[in-house]
Amino acid sequence: MAHDPLNHVIDHDKIEIFTEIADVSIPLLKIGDFQLTLYMLLEVVVAAIILLVYLPLSRKISTGEPPRGTFWNFFEVVLTYIRDEVAKPSIGEKDADRFVPFLWTLFLFIVLCNLLGLIPFLGSPTASLSVTGVLALLAFLLIHGSAIIRLGPLHYLESFIIRIDLGHPLANIFLGIPLTAFLFVLEVISALSRGLILALRLFANMVAGHLVLAVMLSFISMAAKSADYIFWPVTLVSITMTLAVSFLELFVAFLQAFVFTLLTAIFLGMALHPEH
Fold first, then answer.
1. 70, 120, 241, 251: which is deepest, by most CB within 10 A?
2. Inter-CA distances, 234 with 120, 162, 212, 240, 242, Å
């Protein structure tokens, strides 16, 4: 454990192991101005895991062979759930299948990045705002780009207009038009801020969880400087609470990946079908 809990939620240019005991670190590759960081490496690992699991599964399905065994069925169920319970209700039966591959990739990438943070000496790339920001940017571009392609730029902008008819010409001129303009600005700001909301929500939840774990474990280091009758009770309580929070973090890892994917699908459905 490092003395500073924030050390566990920031990116590094090395892999640190037992920093409190032996201060062992493994430097990562650097070529010229390019520095490979821990989060970069973990993102490559996540991508490799997804390919190793789902390429064989896709080959089985493409040949008509049903997945057999708990392992393959579990991963197929994950994809089926995202398609049937997230994409189709949010985007619509007609359009959902076009965007399902993106939602699948988004969910799998986020959940695996989250889970890596529960492995000692690693970390969660999603605890970095730059990572969640890029994920949110991709979702943002897909949402608004797809809507512009489908509706056209002018019709898409028109979908942000909420027309107010107060039933009287003068009232419409002096009150209705200003209110319509004000609501249009609010709608545009709301649409533009959705990507920021996605990034901050995931980032804040992952950072908070890892900070709590880091603080709890740091009690052991602080108690080590005290007498044995203080060290052992503090250590026992700290480890017990850390295990409990780790199980909660396991749930949060899946929950936050699901929420990010669900909100992306909902925002996409809202953009594609503004009439609803």
1. 241
2. 21, 59, 16, 10, 12
pLDDT band at 43 (very low <50, low <70, confident <90, very high): very high
Amino acid at 64: G
Band of pLDDT at residue 2, cut at 50, 70 and 90: very low
What is the amino acid identity at position 136? A
Q: Which of 209, 250, 257 is nearest to 103 (CA)?
A: 257
Query: Which residue bears the tokens 């650097």?
Result: 30
Cα–Cα separations (whole angstroms), residue 256 to 71, 114, 147, 248? 23, 9, 25, 12
Q: Which two tokens stand for residue 152?
A: 């056209």
Task: Report how far residue 259's alpha carbon sits from residue 144's, in angstroms, rounded to the nearest whole number.
Answer: 19
Smallest CA-to-CA distance from 194 within 275, 268, 106 is with 268
In angstroms, the CA 255 to CA 55 distance is 25
Number of separate domains in the chain: 1
Q: Can you give the residue range of the structural domain that contains 46?
A: 5-272
User: What is the mean pLDDT of the segment spanning 22-36?
Assistant: 75
